[in-house]
């Protein structure tokens, strides 16, 4: 994973497809992403990113928001978010 | 069992709800037990609704509505509604036969999250012969089209064996053309009906090796386009599968009559005491039923499992397979290259016979 993930257009509006849901489960002790016959545990940061993938917000807006909320350098946030969203899209867990 | 009392109790993620054993198909590798529950012993709608609520309270996230053919139940829509209302992610596992477009519309409205359709082959004639049902293939194509029209995510499940293993690429292409976002390439697992038909289903070592290469090539070619999940062919493996993610760790299976099993084949192990949802809550069963506690933790293990570095990775493999092949459910799964009985697996795989299938019938 040392290679940078291919860029995503800054005006893309990522969203979870039908059949994929982010859920907080007390019993499972945190955030989980439910998908067809699969369950992925999501850490707090991943959950913050996925929560913003509503199909309304653009990638640029999501990155701005995260950089501001977590007081982190925008470049770094963009790289992390791009890598994560690309990984989710490859697994058919996200639409770009 | 003293040590097991201290084995950490995990929270289950999935519930396999075998709504009925009735099925119009007769696939010779069916994972249902040889002794099928008759219709009059099936749980009623209200009991299933209670079980779904108890499952959600226990922490279960996904319910797999399966069978038999779940559409053989007239209350399938009501059951799906109940599972959805309990907050569960609902997955319909179907042969497609009996799911009309009207029923699918109602299921979609009831909150169905995902559909899995089995396909027996990419060649219609062969597919119908394997299913033991003329016209099944055409119905599967038709239902898949309806599923994607309703924008419900679709998985195509393909069980692989000697009669179709040469067409894995064609079957993945078919899944793509049907609009599936995921395809499961599952080599036959030899329990129940499949064990009866083992010699007639078993592929050759060369076929299995080619199949593995084909799957890798398909994954590269279709990366990002379709998810390809593969279940390894046990009899040709060196390491055993961590069956159901470990006994009593991640999932439960409720039979049509209400018995709760750690895995769908668990009844093949004699001497296990299963509890029923008719007498106990799911939480009680998960925690205290003798069958669930029988192989939790590691105190039940023998050598070479007990001292093995992979003890907590594959949990000694599959208990049902250990019993089926050695007569001892506590033995190391013979698929493991370290198992005393490992060489016998290759000998069993070498027994291949071209004869008519023993179809699964009630």
Helix content of chain A: 25-40%
Number of helical segments of chain B? 14
Task: Please write the string of helix (H) and strand (E) elements of chain B.
Answer: EHEHEHEHHEHEHHHEEEHHHHH
What is the CATH H-level superfamily of chain A?
A: Coenzyme PQQ synthesis protein D (PqqD)
Summarize the largest interface: chains and residue counts.
A-B, 20 and 24 residues
Shape of chain B: globular
Strand composition percent of chain A: 15-25%
The low-pLDDT segments of chain A are none
The quaternary organization reads as: heterodimer
Secondary structural class of chain B: alpha/beta
Strand content of chain B: 5-15%
Mean pLDDT of chain B: 95
CATH class of chain A: Mainly Alpha
CATH topology of chain A: Arc Repressor Mutant, subunit A
The value of Rg of chain A in angstroms is: 13 Å
Descriptive overview:
- The complex is a heterodimer of chains A (96) and B (362).
- Chain A has 96 residues and is of the alpha+beta class.
- Chain A has helices at 44-51, 59-69, 74-90, and strands at 21-25, 30-35, 38-42.
- A three-stranded antiparallel sheet of chain A has the order 1-2-3.
- In chain A, helix 2 (59-69) crosses helix 3.
- The longest helix of chain A is centred in the last third of the chain and has 17 residues, at 74-90.
- The radius of gyration of chain A is 13 Å and the shape is globular.
- Chain A starts with 20 loop residues before the first strand and ends in a 6-residue tail after the last helix.
- In chain B, helix 1 (45-58) packs parallel to helix 2.
- Residues 1-5 of chain B have low confidence and may be disordered.
- Chain B has helices at residues 45-58, 76-85, 101-109, 124-131, 136-149, 168-177, 192-196, 198-201, 205-221, 282-288, 290-294, 311-314, 319-326, 342-349, and strands at residues 14-18, 62-66, 89-94, 114-119, 154-160, 182-187, 227-231, 251-254, 260-261.
- Helices cover 34% and strands 13% of the residues of chain B.
- Chains A and B meet through strand 1 of A and loops of B.
């Amino acid at each position: 994973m040392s290679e940078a993930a291919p860029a995503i257009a800054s005006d893309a509006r990522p969203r979870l497809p039908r059949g994929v849901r982010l859920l907080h489960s007390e019993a499972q002790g945190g955030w989980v992403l439910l998908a067809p016959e699969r369950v992925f545990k999501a850490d707090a940061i991943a959950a913050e990113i996925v929560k913003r993938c509503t199909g309304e917000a653009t990638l640029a807006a999501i990155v701005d928001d995260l950089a501001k909320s977590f007081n982190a350098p925008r470049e770094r946030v963009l790289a992390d978010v791009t890598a994560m969203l690309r990984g989710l899209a490859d697994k058919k867990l996200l639409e770009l | 069992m003293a040590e097991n009392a201290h084995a950490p109790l995990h929270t289950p993620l999935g519930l396999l709800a075998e709504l009925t054993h009735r099925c119009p198909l007769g696939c010779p590798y069916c994972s249902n037990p040889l002794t099928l529950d008759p219709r009059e012993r099936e749980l009623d709608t209200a009991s299933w609704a209670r079980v779904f609520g108890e499952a959600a309270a226990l922490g279960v996230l996904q319910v797999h509505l399966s069978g038999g053919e779940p559409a053989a139940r007239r209350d399938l829509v009501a059951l799906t509604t109940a599972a959805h209302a309990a907050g569960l992610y609902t997955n319909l596992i179907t042969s497609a036969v009996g799911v009309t477009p009207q029923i699918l519309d109602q299921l979609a409205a009831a909150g169905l999250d995902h559909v899995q359709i089995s396909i027996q082959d990419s060649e219609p004639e062969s597919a119908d012969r394997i299913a033991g049902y003329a016209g099944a293939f055409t119905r599967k194509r038709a239902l898949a089209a309806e599923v994607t029209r309703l924008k419900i995510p679709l998985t195509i499940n393909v069980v692989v064996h000697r009669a179709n293993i040469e067409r894995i690429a064609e079957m993945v292409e078919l899944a793509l053309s049907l609009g599936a976002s995921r395809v499961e390439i599952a080599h036959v697992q030899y329990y129940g009906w499949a064990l009866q038909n083992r010699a007639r289903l078993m592929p050759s070592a060369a076929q299995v090796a080619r199949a593995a290469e084909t799957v890798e090539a398909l994954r590269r070619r279709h990366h990002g386009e379709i998810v390809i999940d593969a279940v390894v062919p046990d009899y040709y493996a060196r390491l055993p599968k961590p069956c159901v993610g470990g006994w009593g760790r991640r999932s439960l299976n409720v039979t049509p009559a209400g018995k709760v099993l750690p895995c769908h084949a668990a009844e093949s192990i004699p001497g296990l005491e299963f509890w029923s949802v008719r007498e106990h809550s799911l939480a009680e069963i998960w925690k205290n039923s003798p069958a669930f506690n029988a192989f939790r933790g590691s105190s039940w293990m023998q050598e070479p499992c007990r001292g093995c570095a992979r003890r907590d990775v594959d949990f000694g493999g599959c208990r049902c397979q250990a019993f089926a092949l050695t007569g001892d459910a506590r033995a190391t799964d013979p698929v493991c290259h370290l198992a005393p009985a490992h060489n016998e697996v290759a000998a069993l795989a070498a027994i291949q016979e071209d004869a008519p299938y023993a179809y699964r019938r009630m």
